[in-house]
Each structure stands twice: as structure tokens, then as C-alpha cells.
Amino acid sequence: MGNCLACFKEPNSTALDNSPNCRKEEMPEAQLYPAPSHVPASSAPTETILSNGNHLTALPEPANNRFYPRKPHSKSAPAMGLTDSKPSDAKLNALFDQYKDNAEESILAEGIEQLCRDLQISPDDFRILVLAWKLNAEQMCRFTRSEFVTGLKAMRADSVKGIQGRLPELVAEVGQDVEQFKDLYRFTFRFGLDSAAGQRILPTDMAVVLWRLVFTIREPPILARWLAFLESHQSVRGIPRDTWNMFLNFAEAVGDDLSCYDDNEAWPSLFDDFVEYENDQANQNISKDKDCEGLIIIEQND
Phi/psi class of residue 117: alpha, beta or left (left: φ > 0; alpha: ψ in -120 to 50)? Predict the structure, then answer.
């Protein structure tokens, strides 16, 4: 506070006794301590009479004195953890650096596994797929700096705790919004491709894994039979993008018993093969049931 500390020094009684300035009638108070023009009348100097009869006039406290608390701001503070401000690039880049590979400007498999441990989420959890979708990751097991920083900024999260808080909200939104789920579904196909190798068709075993994962929510009734068909037909080596995308429409159109399937529709041939396989299985089951019934009758007659 500089020279302001002089105001708190102990007064010298001898100097006060001998000083003509002690007498109020000889010199008006306004001349002793003229108040600055910016100080209101209520803040004018006040006079105190000491026990020895001397007069001591106190200066008004400066408006910006740090020893007095400021008045509380009229605007209420935001609730804890809630803010409209965007995450800072500095925090986002620092968070990225915690997990990035030493040799590349990307978070690779090892870093993603560590991030999952910090998030307390399994790497094959649906929420990690949602996170990758929000980061718009081009490739599985790789988050670039640009994807990580831009994606988390859009999520309004710049810490592990922030990501943990946002993921349940995003999962709920995807579960409730059909268009968001469709976007996530289409992203999942691209995410599973090995773009570095120029892959354009998803290997069937990877497609099966991703179908199970993405349908953690909104699972269609025929999913289990569809995946069983793919796993039992090793000749089906890959799933093209069109087949992947149209499976959503196919699953909705055929219902849970394939009774609404119309082979005159322009479905991929793989769907025709699946329905034919399912019908054959159903006919075989009916024949077996009938045969079993016949055997029982014969045994009873004997």
C-alpha cells in the first residue's frame, strides 16, 4: 500500500501538545485535512478527543483498502461444475500429451488403454465407441491431436472427470434420438476399417464384433440370428458399406420373424441368403418335430 501504512503509526503526544494544529477553533478541520473531491460527504475526516485533551483527526479509509472485504457481486455465481465457457486449448493439449505416443502425434492403443483405465471404462465398452464417434476418429486405436482437441472442445470437456461426466449424457441422447443413433451406426463402419491399408470392406469377424457393440442399445430382434448366420457361413468374407448401412432398414422392415420380408425389394443378396437360410432352418425344425411325434405314436402302439 506504499505510503498509506503511515496512517497506522502511533501518534507522538508531545508533538500534539505543542502543535497549534491541535486547536480546532484556530484552524478549521476542512483546512487540516481537506477531503478529496471524489470522497463523499459521509466519508469526511472524523475528529477524536484524546484523554489528554488533544484532538486527533482520522483520515477517511481509502476506497480500495485491502483490509476491508469488498461487497459481494450482485450476479450469482454459476453452479459448481456447470459453465458455458469453452474448454481451453492449453488444457486440452496438456491432456492429449498425457496419453500420446512418444514417437507419434497420436494416442495409440497403449495410450487409449490408459485413458480407459483412468475413465474406469473397459476398452470394448459402448461408451468408448461413443467417445470415438464424438472425436470423429478416422481409425480404430488412434486419436490424432486434432481429433482429440476438437472433439473434446465440442463435448465441453477438458479433463478425465469432464469426459466421465459427459459420456452418460451422450449415451442417453443416442438412445433417445434416432438420427443420432443412425449417425453413430454409419460412423461405426468407417471406424472399423483399416484406412491405412486402404480397406473398403469390413472383415466379417470385425463386422460381427462391431454389430454387437453398436447395438448395445436399440438392438433389433433379428440381430442374434443374423450374427449366427454370418458366423456359420465362413464363405462370407466381408461386409460392404451398403450392406452395413441397409441392415438398419432391413431389420426394421422384417420385424422379428422375417414374415414381412419381400424378396422383390432391392435388398443386398446377402439378405436374401439369410432369409432363405432362416426359412430352411424353420422347415427343418418343423419336419423334425413331426418325425418325433410319429416316433412317439409308434412306440405307444408297440
Answer: alpha
131 closest CA partner among 163, 162, 96: 163
Nearest-10 Cα torsion for 186, 188, 190, 194: -160
Cβ-contact 197, 218 below 8 angstroms: no
Q: How many CB atoms sit inside 10 A of residue 275's CB?
A: 18
Question: Would you say 158 and 91 are in contact if contact means Cβ atoms under 8 Å apart?
Answer: yes
Q: C-alpha distances in angstroms, 173 versus 135, 168, 177?
A: 16, 9, 6
Q: What is the pLDDT of residues 133-179, one digit of tens each?
A: 999 999 999 999 999 999 999 999 999 999 999 999 999 999 999 99
Rounded CA separation 47/221 (Å): 90
Residue 213 and residue 129 in contact, taking contact as beta carbons nearer than 8 Å: yes
pLDDT score for 67: 33
Residue 240's identity, in one-letter code, is P
Buried/exposed 98-114: b ≥16 CB within 10 Å, e otherwise: ebbeeeeebbbeebbee
Residue 288 backbone phi and psi in degrees, to 5: -65, -40
d(CA 25, CA 23): 5
Which alpha helices (DSSP H) does the chain contain, by range? 13-18, 29-32, 89-99, 109-119, 126-135, 145-155, 160-176, 178-192, 204-214, 223-232, 241-254, 269-301
**Predicted local confidence at residue 134, as pLDDT:** 98
Within 8 A by CB and 6+ apart from 251, the residues are 220, 221, 222, 223, 226
SS (H, E, C) 181-219: HHHHHHHHHHHHCCHHHCCCCEEHHHHHHHHHHHCCCCC
Assigned C-alpha cell, 202: 469390413
In degrees, to the nearest 5, what angle opens at C-alpha 206 toward C-alphas 203 and 207? 80
C-alpha cell at 203: 472383415
Q: Which residues does residue 107 pair with via DSSP β-bridges, in sequence order? A: 143
